[in-house]
Amino acid sequence: MGKYQAAIPYFDTTPESLFYNRRSFIQKMGLGLTAASAVSCTSSTAAQADILSEPIYRPDIFPSERNILHPLPQHAGSDLTPRRTAATHNNFYEFLPGRGGAVWKLTSDFKVDPWKIEVTGACQNPFILDLDGLFKFPHEERIYHFRCVERWAMNIPWSGFPLKKIIHLANPKPEARFIRFVTAYLPVQMPGIPRAPYYPWPYNEALRMDEAMHDLTMVVTGCYGRPLLKQHGAPVRIIVPWKYGYKSPKSVVKIEFVREKPKTFWQIQPAEYGFLSNVNPNIPHPRWSQKRSYWLGSHSWFETPIFNGYDQYVAELYPNEPRTPRRPLRRGQIAR
User: Does the N-terminal peptide bond of residue 197 adopt cis geometry, omega within 30 degrees of 0?
Assistant: First the structure.
């Protein structure tokens, strides 16, 4: 086990067949439950099942073959975050604005099939991808270390393909220097949007072209060998493993090639988050240090590595990335 490897036990769901066999056995044995307790048991079971309820069915895609060319960073060990743990606590402000938490409880009205992604902007071949088109790209599974700006971390097996495959198909024009991602704006289906009208909806993020073209940057349609759950950003999201989690937008509906650096969702807010937002223990958040991280579900702490442990792959993209401690931002200062 590595120095900072998570020692998180795995708690999987009770197999469906076992649950129903047990229920049938109780009924046959005459151990009848009262009506009230039966309703309580059924409701509880249904709620638990919804945590891992898969919104689409693609057995031809999942599970995908694992790519081992980019192993987990050494500090992350080899343990996966339990699937239920990863599904129970999420940041998805369109459903739960202002904090992370049990997003899954608020997603029942969210419809992810059918779905379309508009690929547009400064490119020679704009097009629209539906789910069938999206799943035509050869898929693979990669285990990535994930770090939220709030300091919690996970090891997740994502399924998808490099974003550069969509970029090549779109054939961006020479003036396209950035890629902007726009996420779904569905106030009726996403209760967090009407609850937080002060945010600049729809959620949007962006990358430099060299960041978007990097082999580690993925278009993701699944995790844990299954389709993405709604709380993870179904049916399609982006993953950029060396950046804080908010740079990996969920439920993407538009990919736009642009010339000028766009203002992203969090840059329009008070200046706590910058455009680059690389994981860097030397750059503190204005309200907390980023020197340490903890495993979601266990609160076991470890030292945060620069670029989330992917230094060997991406450091050359950022020759000016701070390698010594910086002071927290003061009011009026702009984050990197």
Answer: no
Q: What is the C-alpha to C-alpha distance for residues 179 and 238, in angstroms, rounded to an integer?
A: 12
Collapsing DSSP to helix, strand or coil, 26 comes out as helix
200 cis-preceded (ω within 30 degrees of 0): no
pLDDT tens string 123-163: 999 999 999 999 999 999 999 999 999 999 999 999 999 99
Q: Coil, strand or helix: which one is 142?
A: strand
Radius of gyration of the chain (CA): 21
What count of other Cβ atoms lies within 10 Å of the Cβ of residue 230? 28
In 124-215, the DSSP E strands lie at 127-130, 140-147, 152-162, 178-183, 204-208
Quote the DSSP letter at residue 90. Answer: B
The domains of the chain are located at: 13-51, 58-317
CA distance 88 to 67: 26
Q: How far apart are CA 129 and CA 114, in angstroms?
A: 11
What's 86's DSSP letter?
A: H
Distance CA 306, CA 320 (A): 13
- The 10s digit of each residue's pLDDT in 212-263 is 999 999 999 999 999 999 999 999 999 999 999 999 999 999 999 999 999 9
CB-neighbour burial class of residue 132 (10 A; exposed 0-12, middle 13-18, buried 19+) = exposed
Whole-number Å distance between alpha carbons of 305 and 308: 5
pLDDT in tens, 8-49: 333 333 333 333 333 333 333 333 333 333 333 333 334 444
SS3 percent helix, strand, coil of the chain, rounded to 5, is 25, 20, 55
Nearest to 31 by CA among 40, 22, 39: 22
pTM of the model as a whole: 0.86
Is residue 187 within 8 A of residue 203, CB to CB? The reply is no
Element (H or E) spanning 121, and its range? strand 116-121
| CATH H-level, domain 58-317: superfamily | Oxidoreductase, molybdopterin-binding domain (3.90.420.10)
